[in-house]
């Protein structure tokens, strides 16, 4: 790995390192707040721009789906042309597109700007990780820095609903995007002065064909799920999209093994531990994405809470994620990833099951308890997913494992919003009254429960001692 001379050589090394870490943390907090804060703003966006439920789904899914498609590519591009360069480009794109989102005159334009915003966001998380690894040469300091950085991701995801609710209530839905602009601008300026340029001595080859196949696979699948209730599940468009997604998967499986450095190497899925972590992440974060989407509309459209009140109602979930996220790291260190994965999946499943039968009660106590348990479960799952993915591959592929684990979380959130939103859309008038909302909401909670239970089953099977021994 080659690193250019520090940009600000007169600044003491520890101060420069701390500033670099702060810039990287601010960038990923901004990008991850955006994945959850916008959920709380969806009803206000729909009212302000006249969007449909499908439009609301796309406002969220367009961002997470684009992230899922481009995270690995952006990391490879940074290794090739320079991490500081790509990081700065990501910040600039994120700032400009955030401003464009706030000025959107229709849901269609907002969705388009969200895609551009996610292009910038894809250049932040994986590249920030690489920058931190290059700046903190001492292994002990690097581990602590990565720990702080990882915690900031959880803080961003957990705090998003509260921040979003406050901004929408106090200013309007546009403020959810305005807030990104000054943060990105300050981070961009600091990056220029304190972040050294670095590249990989052996950057991965770019794989444009594999990239297009991944975009086709995920894009067509999510499009079919979101648009199915509106266009008809058996319509030519819906069936064609499902078929196109399957064709892209078949082509990717045939093409990737023949590429010297494919975007996604199917051979990594021979590891039961890695495959298990990948699937668990999709299941758990599909549950989380569906959870946020379902409760956003339940709290604001059915219970008639204000955006701030709705955001505060989700505070127990955010607080539990904040507390149990770091706790999962200690649990992995002391008891192993299997224990943390099991505990997280059990808590999330129990919470979803409780909420299935109590969410529409007259009081909020059980609702808030369910939210807290669900947040604790997801928080416990976050660290062991990455730990299991990294442990499931040789050390030389640790970066690939961490990148794909992050990608799988974004895939999960996209699918969760698509599936839960389609369940609601399949019941016309579901958002007009509590009685009409109850049937699709029950189906939604049952689906979330099933996703968490499936994550538990996969966790127990993929981390079983015989599976680990077989890999070794």
The first-to-last residue Cα distance is 29 Å
Question: Which stretches are low in confidence, meaning pLDDT under 50 for 5 or more residues running?
Answer: 1-11
Q: What is the name of the CATH superfamily of the largest domain?
A: MFS general substrate transporter like domains
- Rg, rounded, reads 21 Å
Structural class: mainly alpha
The structural domain count equals: 3
Give the tally of β-strands.
2
Strand content: under 5%
**What is the name of the CATH class of the largest domain?**
Mainly Alpha
Secondary-structure arrangement, i.e. CATH architecture of the largest domain: Up-down Bundle
Strand order of the largest sheet: 1-2
Task: Explain the layout of strands and helices.
Layout: E1 2-3, H1 13-49, H2 53-81, H3 83-102, H4 107-122, H5 125-135, H6 139-170, H7 175-178, H8 180-194, E2 198-199, H9 208-231, H10 236-255, H11 272-302, H12 307-313, H13 315-335, H14 337-358, H15 365-391, H16 398-425, H17 434-462, H18 465-471
Antiparallel strand pairs: 1-2
Helix pairs in contact: 1-2, 1-5, 1-6, 1-8, 1-11, 2-3, 2-4, 2-5, 2-9, 2-16, 3-4, 3-5, 3-8, 5-6, 6-12, 6-13, 9-10, 9-16, 11-15, 11-16, 11-17, 13-14, 13-15, 14-15, 14-17, 15-16, 16-17
């Amino acid at each position: 790995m080659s690193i250019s001379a520090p940009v600000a050589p007169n600044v003491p090394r520890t101060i420069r390192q701390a500033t670099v870490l702060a810039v990287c943390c601010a960038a990923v907090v901004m990008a991850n707040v955006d994945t959850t804060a916008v959920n709380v703003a969806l009803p206000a966006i729909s009212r302000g721009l006249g969007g449909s439920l499908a439009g609301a789904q796309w406002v969220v899914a367009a961002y997470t789906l684009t992230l899922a498609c481009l995270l690995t590519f952006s990391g490879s591009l940074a290794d090739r042309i320079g991490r500081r360069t790509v990081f700065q480009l990501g910040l600039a794109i994120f700032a400009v597109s955030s401003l464009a989102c706030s000025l959107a005159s229709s849901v269609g334009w907002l969705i388009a700007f969200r895609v551009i915003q996610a292009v910038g966001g894809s250049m932040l998380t994986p590249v920030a990780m690489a920058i931190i690894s290059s700046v903190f040469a001492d292994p002990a300091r690097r581990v602590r820095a990565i720990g702080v950085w990882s915690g900031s991701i959880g803080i961003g995801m957990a705090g998003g609903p509260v921040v979003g609710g406050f901004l929408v209530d106090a200013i309007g839905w546009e403020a959810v995007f305005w807030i990104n602009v000054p943060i990105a601008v300050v981070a961009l300026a600091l990056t220029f002065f304190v972040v050294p340029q670095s590249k990989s001595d052996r950057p991965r080859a770019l794989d444009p064909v594999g990239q297009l196949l991944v975009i086709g696979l995920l894009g067509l699948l999510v499009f079919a799920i979101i648009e199915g209730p509106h266009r008809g599940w058996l319509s030519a468009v819906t069936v064609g999209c499902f078929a196109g997604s399957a064709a892209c998967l078949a082509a990717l499986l045939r093409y990737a093994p023949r590429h010297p450095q494919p975007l996604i190497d199917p051979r990594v899925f021979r590891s039961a531990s890695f495959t298990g972590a990948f699937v668990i992440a999709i299941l758990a974060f599909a549950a989380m994405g569906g959870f946020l989407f379902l409760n956003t509309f339940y709290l604001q459209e059915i219970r008639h809470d204000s955006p701030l009140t709705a955001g505060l109602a989700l505070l127990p979930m955010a607080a539990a994620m904040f507390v149990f996220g770091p706790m999962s790291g200690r649990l992995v260190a002391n008891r192993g990833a299997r224990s943390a994965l099991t505990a997280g999946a059990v808590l999330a499943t129990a919470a979803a099951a409780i909420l299935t039968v109590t969410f529409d009660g007259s009081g909020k106590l059980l609702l808030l308890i369910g939210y807290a348990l669900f947040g604790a479960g997801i928080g416990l799952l976050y660290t062991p997913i990455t730990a299991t993915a990294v442990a499931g591959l040789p050390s030389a592929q640790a970066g690939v494992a961490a990148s794909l684990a992050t990608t799988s979380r974004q895939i999960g959130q996209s699918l969760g919003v698509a599936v839960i939103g389609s369940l609601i859309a399949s019941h016309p008038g579901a958002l007009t009254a509590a009685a009409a909302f109850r049937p699709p909401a029950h189906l939604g909670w049952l689906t979330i429960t099933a996703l968490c239970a499936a994550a538990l089953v996969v966790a127990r099977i993929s981390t079983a001692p015989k599976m680990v021994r077989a890999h070794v």
